[in-house]
Design the sequence.
C-alpha cells in the first residue's frame, strides 16, 4: 500500500504543499512581525507627539505650577502607559505622571524623539516606548527642554497580534491542506487508474496473452502516449509471436522435406534397391542437392542473425554489375522454360562499382526467387539494370498477384510470408544486405497487376571501364 503509486503521488503532493505552506507562513510571520513592530512604534510616536503638545499646553496655562494633566484618563483612552523623565520642575506630589529615573534613558536631553525598550519599576514585562521632548513655552527660558514625556505599551501586544495572525494562518493552512488533499486524491486516481490498467495489461502480455484490453485514454499527455505505444508494442509482440510460430512451422517443413528425401535415398542405397550405376548416381545427386538446400536454409538464418547483431562483414571489391546480373539471370533460366514464363532481361548500362559482389548477387537472386515464386505459370518476369543520378539500380518486375498496401512493410520482416508457406527470410535478408551495402530496396506494387522490387546502390565509387 505505502509503495503504490496511488498512495505516493498524493503523499508527495501533500508533502510539497505542507513544506511550501510552512515556508510561506514563516516568511509571512517574519514580515508581519516587522510590520507590527514598525506600526506600534509609529503609533507610540504619534501619541507621544500629541500628548506632549497637550501636556505643554496645560503646563503653560498653570504659569509654572503643576499642570492639570488627566494622565489616568489618557492612559485608558490610548491603552498606553505615560511616564515622565527629566528635571524636577514640579513638586513630586503634584506631578500627574509617573516619574522614571533618568538612568532609564541617559540621553533624554537629546532634543529628539527616542524609541527604546524598558521594564518599568515593579513590572515584570518589557515595554516598547517613545520619549518625546518637553520644552518651556514662556519666560526667559522659553524653548529649553526640561524633560521627556514617555508613552509605552507592553511588548506582549506584539505577541497578541502575531498570535492572531498565526490563528488565521493555521485555519487557512488546514483548509488548504484539505482542499489540496482532495485535489491530490482526485489527480492520483485520474493518473494511476490508466497506469494500473496498463500494469495489469503488461502482466497479461508477460504471460503470453497479447490480445489484452487496454484502457481508453483519450488525453494527449504522457499517459495517452504510453497507452498508444503500449498498444503498438502488444501488436508487435503478437505479430512477432505469430512470425515465430510461422517460422518454426516453415523451417520444420523446409527441414523435413530434404531430410525425408535424403533418408529415402540413403535407405535405398543401403538396401541395394539402386544397384545399377545410373540409379545410384541419381540418388547421390538428389542427396547432394537436398544437402545444398539444407545448407542454404541454415546459411540464411545465420546471415540474418549476423545482420541484426551488426556482426556482418562487407567486402570492397570491383563488381561488374552486367556480368553479375547475367549470372543471376542465368540461374533461373531453366525454371522459366519449365513453367513457360516469359523471362526478359534489359540492361541499359554497364556500370562497375566497388562493393561486395557475392552479397549483391545474393540480393538479386533473392528478388528473382521471390518473383518466380509468385508469378503464375505463363506469366512474365523481367530483370533490369540501369544507372542514373549517381545511383545504380537493379529492378525485378513480375506479374504476380501484387501486394496490398498494409502488407508492403510486413513482407520485409523476418519469418513472415503472405501464404505462410516459405521461411520468410529471402526479402528480409535482401533488405538488410542492401542497407549494409549503403543502399535500399524500393517497392512498387498494385494488387492484381504484379510488383516491382528495385535494388538501389550508390554509384559514388563507380569505376570507369
Sequence:
Amino acid at each position: 500500500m505505502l509503495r503504490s503509486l496511488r498512495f505516493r503521488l498524493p503523499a508527495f503532493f501533500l508533502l510539497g504543499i505542507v513544506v511550501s505552506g510552512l515556508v510561506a507562513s514563516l516568511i509571512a510571520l517574519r514580515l508581519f512581525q516587522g510590520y507590527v513592530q514598525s506600526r506600534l512604534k509609529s503609533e507610540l510616536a504619534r501619541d507621544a507627539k500629541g500628548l506632549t503638545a497637550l501636556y505643554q499646553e496645560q503646563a503653560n496655562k498653570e504659569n509654572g505650577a503643576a499642570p492639570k494633566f488627566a494622565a489616568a484618563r489618557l492612559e485608558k483612552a490610548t491603552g498606553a502607559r505615560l511616564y515622565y523623565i527629566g528635571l524636577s520642575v514640579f513638586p513630586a506630589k503634584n506631578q500627574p505622571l509617573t516619574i522614571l529615573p533618568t538612568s532609564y534613558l541617559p540621553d533624554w536631553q537629546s532634543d529628539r524623539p527616542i524609541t527604546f525598550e524598558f521594564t518599568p519599576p515593579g513590572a515584570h514585562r518589557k515595554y516598547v516606548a517613545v520619549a518625546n521632548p518637553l520644552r518651556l513655552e514662556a519666560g526667559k527660558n522659553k524653548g529649553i527642554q526640561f524633560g521627556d514625556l514617555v508613552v509605552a505599551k507592553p511588548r506582549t501586544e506584539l505577541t497578541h497580534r502575531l498570535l492572531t495572525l498565526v490563528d488565521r494562518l493555521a485555519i487557512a493552512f488546514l483548509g488548504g491542506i484539505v482542499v489540496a488533499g482532495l485535489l491530490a486524491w482526485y489527480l492520483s486516481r485520474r493518473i494511476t487508474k490508466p497506469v494500473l490498467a496498463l500494469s495489469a495489461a503488461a502482466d497479461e502480455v508477460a504471460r503470453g496473452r497479447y490480445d489484452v484490453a487496454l484502457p481508453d485514454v483519450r488525453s494527449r499527455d504522457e499517459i495517452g502516449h504510453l497507452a498508444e505505444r503500449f498498444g503498438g508494442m502488444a501488436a508487435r509482440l503478437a505479430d512477432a509471436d505469430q512470425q515465430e510460430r510461422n517460422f518454426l512451422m516453415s523451417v520444420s517443413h523446409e527441414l523435413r522435406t530434404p531430410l525425408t528425401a535424403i533418408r529415402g535415398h540413403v535407405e535405398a542405397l543401403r538396401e541395394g534397391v539402386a544397384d545399377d550405376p545410373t540409379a545410384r548416381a541419381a540418388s547421390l545427386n538428389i542427396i547432394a542437392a537436398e544437402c545444398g538446400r539444407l545448407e542454404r536454409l541454415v546459411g540464411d538464418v545465420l546471415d540474418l542473425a549476423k545482420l541484426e547483431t551488426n556482426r556482418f562483414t562487407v567486402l570492397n571489391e570491383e563488381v561488374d554489375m552486367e556480368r553479375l546480373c547475367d549470372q543471376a539471370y542465368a540461374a533461373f533460366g531453366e525454371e522459366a522454360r519449365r513453367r513457360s514464363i516469359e523471362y526478359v532481361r534489359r540492361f541499359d548500362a554497364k556500370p562497375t562499382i566497388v562493393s561486395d559482389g557475392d552479397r549483391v548477387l545474393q540480393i538479386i537472386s533473392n528478388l528473382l526467387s521471390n518473383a518466380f515464386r509468385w508469378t503464375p505459370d505463363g506469366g512474365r518476369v523481367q530483370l533490369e539494370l540501369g544507372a542514373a543520378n549517381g545511383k545504380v539500380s537493379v529492378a525485378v518486375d513480375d506479374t504476380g498477384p501484387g501486394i496490398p498496401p498494409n502488407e508492403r512493410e510486413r513482407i520485409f520482416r523476418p519469418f513472415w510470408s503472405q501464404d505462410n508457406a516459405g521461411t520468410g527470410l529471402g526479402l528480409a535478408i535482401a533488405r538488410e544486405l542492401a542497407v549494409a551495402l549503403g543502399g535500399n530496396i524500393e517497392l512498387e506494387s498494385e494488387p492484381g497487376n504484379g510488383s516491382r522490387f528495385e535494388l538501389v546502390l550508390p554509384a559514388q565509387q563507380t569505376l570507369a571501364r
Q: What stands out?
A: The domain at 317-458 is CATH 3.30.565.10 (Heat Shock Protein 90). Residues 120 and 126 are 8 Å apart (CA to CA).
